[in-house]
Design brief:
The chain has 327 residues and is of the alpha/beta class. It is built from 10 helices and 7 strands. The protein folds into 2 domains: 219 residues, Alpha-Beta Complex (Spore Coat Polysaccharide Biosynthesis Protein SpsA, Chain A), CATH 3.90.550; 72 residues. Strand 2, helix 2 and strand 3 form a beta-alpha-beta unit. Its EC number is 2.4.-.-.
Length: 327
Amino acid sequence: MPSSPRIVAVVPCHNEEAAIAKVVTDLHATVPGIEVHVYDNCSTDGTAEAARRAGAHVRREEEKGKGNVVRRAFADLDADVYLLIDGDDTYDVADAPRMIATLLGGPYDHVLGVRRQVSGTAYRAGHESGNRFFNTLVTFAFRRQVTDMLSGYRVFSRRFVKSFPALSREFEIETELTVHAVNARVPQTEVEVGFRDRAEGSESKLRTYHDGFRILGIFAQLLFQERPFLVTGAASCALFVLGLVLGLPVVVEFAGTGLVPRFPTAFLAASLMVLAGVFLLMGVLLHGQARIRRETSRLFYLRQPAPPWSGAADAGRPAPAAVEERG
C-alpha cells in the first residue's frame, strides 16, 4: 500500500456548464493530488469542455441517469478512496478533506455527508420533508439510524465500491447506497457538510413527485429483497387477523348450533388462513435466500483490502459529530 492513498472524485454531470469548472478547481485546490473524473451524462451544453479546461478527466456516459454514471464510474476507476459529489456546486468542497480524513482515520468504508443548509433556500419545496420521511422509513425498516439518506456527497473505501452492485439507473442511487451500507453493516459514520443554492444560470434536474415515487419504489423493492420476512410476515399477520375476525363468529355459531349458515364467509376465512400460512412460509424461504446473498456479498467485501490506516484516531483526532455504525 503506498504511503499516500490514491483518491479519485466522481462527479456526475448533466448540463452543468455554469458550475462544473468551479467544482473541479475547488477539488484540486482543496484535496492535493486528487484525480477528478467528470462523467458527462448526455449534456447538451458545454459541460464537458468546461470540465476539461478546469483540469478534470472527462468521460461520457450515454445511458442517462445518475445511477448509470455511478455504476460506470465504480467499474472504471481503481483507487483507495472515492469521493462522490454532484457537479452543481451545491455541496461545500471545503468539507471534502475532513470527510476523507474521517474515512482514513476510522478506518471506515462509508462517510455520509449530512447536509447543513448554508442558505435558507438550498432545499427545494418538499425536498426536506420528503428526505425526513425516507430517513424514517430506512431507520425503521433496517434498524440503523440514517440522517440524510438522499445526500449525494459521500466518501467510500475501495472495498465498499467494489462490493456494491449499483443496480439503480437514476436518482434512486442514493437510496441504494444507503440501504447497502446499513444492511451490510459496514463501518460508517456521518459528517455535517455545507449545502447551498445552485449556481446562477443552472437548473435543478430533480422532479419532486416523479423522483419521490421512483425512490419509494426502489425502497420497496430493496426492502422486499433485503428484509423479505418483515414484508411477508406483516402480510401474513394481516391475513391471519382478517381471517380470524371473519371466521371466529362462524366457529362460535357452529359450536352452538352445529350449523354453518354463512358458508361463503367460512370459506373466505379459511382461504385467508391458508394464505397467511403461505406468506409465512414464503417469508422463511426468502429470508434464507437473502441471508445467503448477504453472506456472498460479505465475502466479496472481505476480498478487498481495508482502507489505508492513517493513525489519525490514535493520534487524538476528535471524533466527528456523527452516528457511527460499526460492522
